[in-house]
Amino acid sequence: MRVLGEVTPNQPFDVTLGQGWNCLANPFDGVMPWDLSAMQVLVGNDFVPLSNPTTWDTVAPYAWYWDGTQNRLVFDPAVPAFANALSSVPRAGGLWVWCATANTTLRLPPPVAGASRAVRSVSTRDWSVALTAVGPDGSSAGASAGVSAALSRGLRIAEPPRPAGSGGVSLAVLDGTTRLAGDLRAWSAGAQSWDLLVTSPSAGSVTLTWPSLLRGLPGGLTAELTDQQTGRSILLNTLSTYRFTAGRAGEQRRLRLTVQPGHIQRSAITALGLVGGRAAGTTVAIGVSGPADITLRVKGLGGRLVKEVTSAATEAGTVQVSWDGTDQDGRTVPAGTYQLEATAVAPNGAVSRAVRAITVR
After folding, report:
1. Beta 204-209 vs 241-246: how paired, if at all?
2. Alpha-carbon distance 35 to 249, whole Å?
3. Alpha carbon 239 to chain centroid, angstroms
4. Is the pLDDT of residue 33 over 70?
5. DSSP assignment, residue 314?
6. Which pTM was predicted?
7. Can you tell me the distance from the alpha carbon of 132 to that of 154, in angstroms, rounded to the nearest whole number?
């Protein structure tokens, strides 16, 4: 099949949208920026910039670009809302745009060579958390939540149309019974919480990750993920994954994401030392300020690992860990100076470490 047509001149391009999702293509011979201040919606007899939130009830200020394997969110980088969002549409790229009213005119801006885009920095008033779920079959899905002081009203990101016959894992932000791909709120002080829903396509392990957290969440904020089925809570700041096992196809798991100001609560190591003499084969006392899983590593002065001993979870207080004076291969270590490195991992994933040199005789 051969399709003939004309290249769109390098000038604004008007497209008439229908009600619901509209499948469009980049009409320009180049990359089209997703710049809300340059995009316009015809309201009455006047074109109004899509950066004006009053237009969002008519045309969504975001789009979904299909990259051949998955839908990618397209959004204006002037609003630091979604760390993984694209800021432009590739040449000949197809995208989904939502419109609430039929026969609405959307004016698209042409590419501008050498143009610079204002990018708003992430701060305690402008941030987001993007999560990705990977199902037992290897399929993946994402969802985002955040706040922005650049917005006078919230922005709810609707899930894009899914290709016919597509399945796989799904991850959504819940607003009551409505499923969203993202929820961006106008900034307000204090804690923010979102309910999430993961649906597994089959029985097996489901993994959640948040690889862009360092780019999307500033210091001074902690992000906590709570499994509402098991009650377990972890800090996204200190861990990189969370896993649960789905027992059947279609099983759903509800989670809650909470972001709030504050410092990470750790189970600090308050003491580290030998019990008794300095002979090879001894007991090490480790004091912790709260519940934690304890790991003791014995290292040479050059940092080479000699032996690793793991203790069961303990409550606040002192736990004694036995080291039999041997290395990883079971050989008795020679006399000399070694380093004890104790690691305490709190239930929320926060890590504390302490190091002390000892002499073995």
Report:
1. antiparallel
2. 41
3. 11
4. yes
5. B
6. 0.74
7. 22
